[in-house]
Description:
2 domains, two-stranded antiparallel ribbon, 3 helices, Addiction module component
Amino acid sequence: MNLQYLADHRGNVTGVFIPIQEWEQIRTQLRLPDESKTEHRQELIEAFEEMKEIKAGKRPKPALNNFLDELRTL
């Protein structure tokens, strides 16, 4: 298995990168559902709809600080 370890600025290991082909094999062997595609697709659709509303003036533009705070909670 070709793993790559991810580390923070202090050198502490914070995660592992598994090549997608190997992950698909593991997911199949463990019979895990591939929910990521559906979940991410729906999130993108919602984000594009929100942008359309902002451009049309139906929704206020978010302040940069609010936007960055929202990203930090993800």
